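Annual report, structural modelling task.

Input specification for the magnesium ion complex:
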Amino acid sequence: MKGLIFGPPGAGKGTQGLLLEERLHIPVISTGQIFRDAISSGSSEALQLKEIIASGQLVPDEVVINIAIDRISQSDCKSGFILDGFPRTIQQAKVASESGVRFDFILELVLDSDEIVRRISGRRFHPASGRTYHISDRPPKNPGLDDLTHEPLICRDDDSMDSVLKRIKIYEDITKPILDFYTSQKNDFTLEHIKVGGLGGVDAVHASILEKMRQCQIIS
Ligand code: AP5
Ligand code: MG
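The model returned the following structure:
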């Protein structure tokens, strides 16, 4: 099974991705998380990306494409994967497609800008695992600490208001159009386009996703 979780910043891609990973036993690969891991490891190449990401811009296609395709070719992806945040430009989608990357489904999470801003401004994040909390909607058991490791939670560098507004605009102008690339009849492949409203609690959204996946016979 190969899928893509698609949606604006803060729509819940990472949150729902981790739940799908547990449910489906296939890795969920987030290019954003790959970059954050690289930045915290302190490599010189990654540090150049830190500023780009913090300001809400996209990392250049040639950098992302190589990293994503290399990651998908690793052995844990043999029986499937779900991508979170790649592809994000038409060029990325085209090169991925030329490299043989096919999806059985695209899961599109839909959320309006006001709710995106509200969610991201309350987000707290465990850098090592990618586990994400929200100060009021999904609080950790102990304030400021990850539930499993008890390590401190942080705010992401790219969660400033300026950066969030820029990311929403980039999503609308550059990323959303790639839905047409995938759903267009001109392609030599077909996939299920599953659209789910991101409003409602995490568990309710997860249940809606599973229900729609059953209806499309992606899961039984
Ligand atoms: P990335 O890490 O992918 O960020 P994003 O797409 O902006 O999305 P977020 O991670 O902010 O949101 P999310 O949808 O995962 O929501 P979450 O589950 O956290 O990318 C970061 C950057 O890396 C990019 O801006 C770019 O610079 C670079 N990059 C990555 N991929 C790239 C590519 N392909 N090309 C170029 N550059 C690339 O949830 C958000 C909050 O809401 C949390 O607090 C959560 O607890 C809460 N929440 C979630 N669901 C619910 C719910 N149902 N009810 C209430 N609260 C909820
Ligand atoms: Mg995310």
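The mean pLDDT is 94.
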